[in-house]
Structure formats: C-alpha cells, structure tokens
C-alpha cells in the first residue's frame, strides 16, 4: 500500500512538527509527542485547561483542535495506541495552572488507564484534574453496557463545548459538568465501505467483497458489529439516524446538532449526500436541527466510510458550539437553511419552434434520427478509443446526446434554423465535458446562418457547416493537426465548399465532405496530441484515432446514407 510517509516510526512526530510549523500559536514539547497552545502568560492566570488525545491516525483529531476556544493540548500516541502516562502528565503540567484541567478521554481501556493515572498524579502535584469519558457509540447498545461503549466522533463536539466553557473563564467544576452533559447525551454510529491501512503494517486490517460493508465500527480499523450488503446512501443514513434516535430517546421538538464525519477517504461529494439525507431524516422525526457539521473531524486513517453523531441541544450547549475558536480542525459554523430553497431556472433555450413546418422538416427529422442511431450503435467503438487516449466517457456522452435529440418534439425540426438551435440546446444539456459545448456552439452558429430560411439549399448547408466549424475552432483553439474533432470537421468543410464552388452537384459535394471527414479522423492516429486530455499522454496516444474526430465522421456518414436512401 503506497503512503506519503517516511519512516513509520517517526510518523507521529513529523505530523506534529508539520502542525506546529503551519499553525501560529502552537508549540511542541521537546521530549513528548504533545502539541500545546503556546501561552507565555502567568501560570496563575490561566483558565481551566482542556486536554485530549489518544492514538494517532484520527487526524484532524486531536491535534487539529488545539487552539483558543478548544483544546489547550493534544497528546498523541502512536497510530491507534494510547499515549503514555508520562506524556499525558507532561501535557497537563505544560498548560494547566492552579485552576486545573479537564481531560476528555475516549472510552478505550488504554486511554482510560493512562489518562486516569496521569490525572491522579497531576492532582497529587497540585493541579486539580478531572476526567470526562466519552462513550458515544450506539452501535454497541445490544452488546455491552452503556459505560463500556467506545468513544468515537462525538468526542469532537465535547472538545468544542468544554473548550468554550474554559475560554469563558468558568471554574473547573462547571467546565467538567458541561463537558459531561455533552458526553452523556451525544450518540454516534458509523459505517465503513472498506478497511484502513496502518502504516507500520502496510496492509488493510480486513477485507470486504465489492458488495459488502461494515456497520457499527469504531475508529481503530476494527470490523463493525455487522457485515451487510452495500446499500444506497439514503438507506444507510436512515439506519444510522434511526438507531441513534432510538438509543438516545430523541423525538419531535428536540433541538439537536448533527455531525457528519468522514472516516478518512470518503470524498466531500459523498459526505454531502450523507449530510443532505441526515438533515432530512432528522426533520422527518420532528427534530429541530439547529447545526449540522460535515467534513472529516475524527478519521480512521484512510478508511472509506462515515459516522453520524447527534447531540441534543440546550441554549448553553448551542452557545458553546457557536463560540469562536482558533482551532483549525473546527472549520464550519454548522448553520443550516430552515428549508431548501428551489427557484425556477431562467429559460435558456431559444429554438424558434413557433415557425410552421417547412418543406424539409421530415427530411431533417429523418437525418437526425439516423445520426442518433449511428451514435448509439457505435458507443463501444467511441468508448474504446476514448479510454485509450482519454477518460473513456465519449461513447456514453454520444449516447446521451443521441437520446436527447431523439426526444425533441416534431416542431423542433420545422426549419433548418430551428433544428440546429433545438439540437444545440439538447446537446448542451445532455453532454457533459467538452463535447457538449463544442457541438452546441457550432450548431448555434449554424442556426444563425440558416435563420429565416424555410428550406436550405446545398450552399446554405455548406455555409452553415463552415460557420459551425469556425465556431468550434474559436471556442477551443484547435486547428488541423492538434488531434481533435477539428481534424474531421475542417477538411469536410473545406472540400464541401470547394466542390460546390467548382460546380459539383450538392449531393456529390456532400459525399466528398463525408470522405474528407473520414480521412481526417483516420489521420489522427499518426498525430501527437497537443490539446485536450489526450495531450497528457504525449507519444502514448500515437496509433489511436481521436474519438471526437471519429464521432464526426460517423454522424456525417449517417446523414449521407439517409439522404441516399430517401
């Protein structure tokens, strides 16, 4: 498994060094893996210190939450390993004054033992120290007693609440009470799509089939409480939310904050889908969601998956969550819209469908149908060409475009101009990437040339095609030889115009254009790409025809065949 690390034995220290280097106001203890909020003021004037920590691998937790308004210090053990008693004690003594310290501890045996003993020793040395244990994992509700549940992502909310209370200058007893209130009421449950890889091991902790997931996991790479089939995101979110609400006995009218937490390798696009459903599901139960935080807050290295935490709110807890902090790991105000606002999109199409059917309406419709049929039939060819020199989506894009133009109403084809404009609008909407805009701009330009013509002559169609090619070249900057669709378009336009100028019959001139497009597409196999995604491949693209140019040759040939058959 590839990792951007140096020696795994030095990983934790290097992470803390990076945070200290890039975060003004933080410092490292020289002999312990402890990140502290630098405070050179008199020790006697320091507010209650709030500390947390545990095994590393949960970034941005815990060191990412060191800063004014959250933690005073974070103690980092090796990956998924509790820090030592000495490290915890050194951290307490580095940041706490006579007003004392609160240690926020996730409910794992090693953490409880080492943090607990350090608290006893600190208290004995004149620094009153309290412990708040977070055991928020509701997935274990039917397996262990509540006091033996694991502490997972809900811990971050406890950090924020305790840090805010300390920043307000509250005494030790009140900071501790507020933190315990949050810890006792928050509930969390997670789901994993795969395992994480501990750097010192170099292999995933467990294996899953492509259609399997783990439900109810912790944050140390362990399996969940249940292996289940992969399900849509909404179904998984519903299960997590429903379990938390049942366990925490939350119902209609309850004010809550929700934390959607990524476990390490789940991208924001997926976490946002989860957040969307979490908000909707909570509201279906009548909960008043006042804050929703979404991002990576307490990870499990590179594990794919997420957890959801729900914290019942009071005015005091909400104020604590909203209080300012300089901790960089806390990067959202969590505010949500009272409801989703959806407004009507302005009309962007201007297809001129109000013209009566012209004499070429049926022929235009038949030609367009032939184009659609050809593009759908050649999807595998276009997909293969594009995958060998690009991202492989051209075949699917052309099929979407074909289906879009097939769905156009009959009146779209009443005139040459209306047909070009309607097809431009359909392709612009249906085809993502570069193909959609290129085809759309060309057709829009062609529609302008054909405006007010009930029927178009061969010269009209040639002029419109040339104008379309010029528009594509202007928009994309491509010229013949760049290995793009222009290598089929430009030769076709030029020979079409030349043949007509030389007195050729319109059908013969168009046949020559079709042949020129095909020859141009074939020639791209010998071209080194200089534009588009294939340009990134350089010489590796040689020998492969450009998919965009081939697509042009296919639809021109389809039009030609249809005209010959009619």
From TrEMBL:
<dbReference type="InterPro" id="IPR050861">
    <property type="entry name" value="Dihydroxyacetone_Kinase"/>
</dbReference>
<feature type="domain" description="DhaK">
    <location>
        <begin position="7"/>
        <end position="330"/>
    </location>
</feature>
<feature type="domain" description="DhaL">
    <location>
        <begin position="362"/>
        <end position="561"/>
    </location>
</feature>
<keyword id="KW-0418">Kinase</keyword>
<dbReference type="InterPro" id="IPR036117">
    <property type="entry name" value="DhaL_dom_sf"/>
</dbReference>
<dbReference type="GO" id="GO:0005829">
    <property type="term" value="C:cytosol"/>
</dbReference>
<protein>
    <submittedName>
        <fullName>Dihydroxyacetone kinase</fullName>
    </submittedName>
</protein>
<keyword id="KW-0547">Nucleotide-binding</keyword>
<keyword id="KW-0067">ATP-binding</keyword>
<keyword id="KW-0808">Transferase</keyword>
<dbReference type="InterPro" id="IPR004007">
    <property type="entry name" value="DhaL_dom"/>
</dbReference>
<dbReference type="Pfam" id="PF02734">
    <property type="entry name" value="Dak2"/>
</dbReference>
<dbReference type="InterPro" id="IPR004006">
    <property type="entry name" value="DhaK_dom"/>
</dbReference>
<dbReference type="GO" id="GO:0004371">
    <property type="term" value="F:glycerone kinase activity"/>
</dbReference>
<dbReference type="Pfam" id="PF02733">
    <property type="entry name" value="Dak1"/>
</dbReference>
<dbReference type="GO" id="GO:0005524">
    <property type="term" value="F:ATP binding"/>
</dbReference>
<dbReference type="GO" id="GO:0019563">
    <property type="term" value="P:glycerol catabolic process"/>
</dbReference>
């Amino acid at each position: 498994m590839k990792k951007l690390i140096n020696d795994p034995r030095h990983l934790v220290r290097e992470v803390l060094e990076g945070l200290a280097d890039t975060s003004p106001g933080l410092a490292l203890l020289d002999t312990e893996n402890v990140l502290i909020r630098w405070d050179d003021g008199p020790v006697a004037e320091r507010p209650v210190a709030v500390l947390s920590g545990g095994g590393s691998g949960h970034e941005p937790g815990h060191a990412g939450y060191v800063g004014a308004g959250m933690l005073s210090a974070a103690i980092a053990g090796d990956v998924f390993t509790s820090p030592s008693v000495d490290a915890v004690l050194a951290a307490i003594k580095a940041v706490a004054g006579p007003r004392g310290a609160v240690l926020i501890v996730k409910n794992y045996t090693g953490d409880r033992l080492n943090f607990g003993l350090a608290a006893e020793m600190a208290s004995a040395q004149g620094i009153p120290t309290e412990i708040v244990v977070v055991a928020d994992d509701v997935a274990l509700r039917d397996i262990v007693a509540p006091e033996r549940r694991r502490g997972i992502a809900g811990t971050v909310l406890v950090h924020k609440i305790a840090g805010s209370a300390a920043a307000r200058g509250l005494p030790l007893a009140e900071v501790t009470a507020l933190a315990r209130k949050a810890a006792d009421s928050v509930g969390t449950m997670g789901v994993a799509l795969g395992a994480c890889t501990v750097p010192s091991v170099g292999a995933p902790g467990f294996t899953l089939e492509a259609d399997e997931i783990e439900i109810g996991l912790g944050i140390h790479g362990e399996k969940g409480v249940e292996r289940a089939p992969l399900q849509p995101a909404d179904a998984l979110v519903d299960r997590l939310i429903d379990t938390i609400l049942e366990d925490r006995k939350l119902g209609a009218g309850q004010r809550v904050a929700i934390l959607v937490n990524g476990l390490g390798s789940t991208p924001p696009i997926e976490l946002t889908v989860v957040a969307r459903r979490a908000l909707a599901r909570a509201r279906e139960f009548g909960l008043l969601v006042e804050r929703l935080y979404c991002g990576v807050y307490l990870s499990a290295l590179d594990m794919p998956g997420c957890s959801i935490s729900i914290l019942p709110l009071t005015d005091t807890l909400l104020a604590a969550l909203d209080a300012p902090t300089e901790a960089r790991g806390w990067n959202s105000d969590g505010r949500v819209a009272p409801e989703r606002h959806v407004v009507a999109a302005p009309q962007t199409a201007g297809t001129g469908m109000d013209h009566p059917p012209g004499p070429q309406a049926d022929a235009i419709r038949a030609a367009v149908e032939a184009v659609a049929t050809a593009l759908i039939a050649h999807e595998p060819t276009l997909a293969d060409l594009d995958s060998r020199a690009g991202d492989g989506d051209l075949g699917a894009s052309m099929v979407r475009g074909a289906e879009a133009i097939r769905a156009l109403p009959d009146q779209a084809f009443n005139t040459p101009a209306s047909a070009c404009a309607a097809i431009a609008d359909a392709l612009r909407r249906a085809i993502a990437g570069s193909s959609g805009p290129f085809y759309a701009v060309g057709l829009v330009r062609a529609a302008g040339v054909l405006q007010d013509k009930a029927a178009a002559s061969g010269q009209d169609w040639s002029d419109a095609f040339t104008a379309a090619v010029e528009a594509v070249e202007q928009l994309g900057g491509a010229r013949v030889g760049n290995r793009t669709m222009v290598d089929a378009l430009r030769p076709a336009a030029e020979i079409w115009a030349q043949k007509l100028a030389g007195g050729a019959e319109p059908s013969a001139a168009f046949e020559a254009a079709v042949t020129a497009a095909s020859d141009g597409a074939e020639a791209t196999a010998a071209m080194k790409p200089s534009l588009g995604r294939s340009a990134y491949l350089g010489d590796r693209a040689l020998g492969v025809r450009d998919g965009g140019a081939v697509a042009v040759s296919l639809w021109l040939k389809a039009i030609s065949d249809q005209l010959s058959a009619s």
